[in-house]
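Following up on my earlier thread - several people asked me to post the actual chain instead of describing it. Fair enough. Here it is, all 403 residues.
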Amino acid sequence: MKYDFIIIGGGAAGFFTALNVAESNPKLKIAILERGKEVLSKVRISGGGRCNVTHAEFIPKELSKNYPRGKKELIGPFHTFMTGDIMEWFDSRGVALKIEDDGRVFPVSDSSQTIIDCFLSEAKRLHIQVLTNHAVKDFYTKEGEWEIVTNQGDFQTKKIMIATGSNPKIWDKLAVMEHKVIDAVPSLFTFNIKDARIKDLPGVATSASVRVKNSKLSSEGPLLITHWGMSGPAILKLSAWGAIELNSYQYDFAIIVNWLQYYSQEEVINELKELKERTPKQQVSKYAQFQLPKRLWQSLVVASGIESTKRWADVNKTEFLALGEQLTKGVFRVKGKSTFKEEFVTAGGVDLKEVSFKTFESKKYKNLYFAGEVLNIDAITGGFNFQNAWTGAFIAAQAIVSE
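Reply from S.P.:
Thanks for posting it. Predicted structure:
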């Protein structure tokens, strides 16, 4: 079957490309090939089922700083299409969005189904053929066109886009075509930690700074204690920026946690000594200090060797030092990671040097385009990975219809 343009991959990047191509030129015959039973499955589960569409950062250079891989390459594309543009795109199609306090952007409905319904209705309106259960076995150029072999027949097209994310079979095929593909490693993941100090504290959250011991890797922000260890933005950001390095450690390393984020050990000890003078008869563990969650405070007090019934007046110099260290320099051993299953993000993909970021076209093959996580681009959590998909898809679509 012959088409003008075929997208391999029925995810966010593939759909957004198809919609923009069809909108610009309704006469083109377009198809989306999806290997699974349904399309947009990652959109469905993203943001806890709410779909974190993008992030409310409206300055291209500042937005690019959220991408451990792709930071430099995306600055130019973000000047063409970024946060405000995708928000306007959805708004013009009746999808109301909202900006939450942390900058994340969600549909007002708080349901990813709203985004999915928008894409599917637009695809129907624009007569885009969405073909599920079409697993691509091979694709290659033949007499100036692309031949695509699937489990349900062969297709021919003038132009092709790969928007399959980290699909190993597609990556292997691209490698055979002499595209350099960077091996995939997990990018957004939580830390598995077994430690008495946090064992009974699942659900406790606070702000902290975290750094990997004997490394330059560091992060800060909300931290969540879980049944298996630590999560939250501080940990997820660290996992994204350290994806390659932490993989080289085989996810066995130590982190240093400052539960007070900006306080030094010396500053903490000075404040605790002042507290001792003001409330000498008060039990140390009874009232949490520095606005820490009470259960976390009590756990760190115990870890400092201070008895739960001890009063501030009886705390000695050694115990002050120990408590100050637990609060600002707590060392935790990480052994393993946990990912978000289908939602997880990988570092790796097509080498960025082999792609034109003016068109998102391959530098090796004419009329071969890429968008989304098939490229070696990934971001921290917060809607940034979707923004990469929207930007690449839009720019590729403009290039596809202009040639």
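The mean pLDDT is 96. That should answer part of your original question.
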